[in-house]
Design brief:
Radius of gyration: 21 Å
Order of helices and strands: HHHHH
CATH topology of the largest domain: F1FO ATP Synthase
Mean pLDDT: 78
Structural class: mainly alpha
Largest sheet: none
Strand content: under 5%
Helix content: over 70%
Distance between the termini: 29 Å
CATH class of the largest domain: Mainly Alpha
CATH architecture of the largest domain: Up-down Bundle
Length: 143
């Protein structure tokens, strides 16, 4: 378990250091090289993160605090799923608002009469986070 945590931490620090190094040295082809390095780090980091979650979640679920509070391991998984429902839905909503908002801004700058229609689309993108929150509340209600 400590190997996973140490390697993940080193990978994150290496990514940050590479970005700072390339930014200050203004290397030629820096964007393409930086994208390649970040892509490689992402493909290494995500499996390490999944392994860390698989290794660490059972220890967190079966911790003494949860047993003392009278919660079972199923309740711990319920809390994790509620957190993931809200977190992933919020990330998706943020991405959707970024894409739709930039397109809406471009459309409104060309034709101001499109403002009302574009606000509807931005509102629909924000609704994704609300759906995730509702699912989380439903999961917590069942615990």
């Amino acid at each position: 378990m400590s190997f996973v945590l140490i390697s993940t931490t080193l990978l994150v620090l290496l990514t940050i250091g590479t970005g700072i190094f390339m930014m200050y040295n203004q290397m030629e082809g820096g964007k393409n090289r930086l994208k390649k390095i970040l892509r490689t780090n992402l493909f290494i980091f995500l499996p390490l993160l999944i392994i860390a979650v698989i290794v660490m979640v059972p220890h967190g679920i079966n911790a003494a605090e949860t047993e003392a509070a009278g919660l079972s391991s199923a309740a711990g998984l319920g809390f994790i799923s509620a957190a993931l429902a809200t977190g992933i839905a919020t990330l998706g909503a943020g991405y959707a608002v970024a894409v739709v908002g930039s397109a809406a801004l471009g459309a409104v700058s060309e034709d101001a009469s499109l403002l009302g229609k574009t606000l509807i689309f931005v509102g629909l993108a924000e609704g994704i986070a609300i759906y995730g929150l509702i699912v989380s509340i439903m999961i917590l209600g069942r615990l």
